Amino acid sequence: QVQLEESGGGLVQPGGSLRLTCAVSGSEFRNSNMGWYRQPPGKEREMVAGISSIGAMYYADSVKGRSTISRDNAKNMVYLEMNSLKPEDTAVYYCNKAWGSFGSWGQGTQVTVSS
Question: Which strands sit side by side in the sheet containing 4-7, from one edge to the other?
């Protein structure tokens, strides 16, 4: 079973930056399209960025131009660098298979953007 562990969140002021990290166990990672999702308080979880197994990227309009997704297949890691953070970016951030899931979710990492 694939296990996912997100880290790198925290409290940041508007305009600040964060780099989120996701460690993925299991051999499925290398051939899987991966995504970062977020769930703001009281709202549904949504995918905000994706990266295919060969590096093609997708961004939701809400983060496009401010975020960069990347992956390291040798380390089974996925990253999301977020810049120019806004209060509306406040959410719990998760990684998983893009447009789907491996069947379970990690605990996520909390990002709070506030002055």
Answer: 4-7, 18-24, 77-82, 67-72
